[in-house]
Amino acid sequence: MSDFESLSSISGDKELQEFLMMEKQKAQVNAQIHEFNDICWDKCISKPGSKLDSSTETCLSNCVDRFIDTSLLVTQRFAQLLQKRAGDL
Q1: Which of 12, 45, 56, 63 has minimal CB crowding within 10 Å?
Q2: Structural domains of the chain, ranges and CATH numbers in brackets
């Protein structure tokens, strides 16, 4: 195998790993959103009906939005800590 072929193989492996990592992250986000929806459903829905009233709809929307905001805040904070730690090394 030539050096060029080795580099191409390594590059392809790296791209595959990045793709797989991104797909895993998408799956984690989707799973998290489903979990938020379940929690908010239990919190906001007292009795299921044929349609949602405005207060229930608002409760669901606000509940999911707060979970997503909190999740993003925690993720950003961890990213900041990792960057700071990497800079200290």
Answers
A1: 12
A2: 3-88 (1.10.287.810)
In the DSSP assignment, the letter for residue 63 is H
How many beta carbons lie within 10 A of that of residue 28, not counting itself? 10
**pTM of structure:** 0.53
- CA gap 33, 47 in Å, rounded: 22
Tokens for 20, please give them: 């797989």
- Write out the two tokens for 10: 């390594």
Q: Report residue 27 as tokens.
A: 């799956």
Q: Which residues contact 68 (CB under 8 A, 6 or more apart)?
A: 33, 36
Phi and psi, residue 49, nearest 5°: -135, -170
Q: Radius of gyration of the chain from Cα atoms?
A: 21
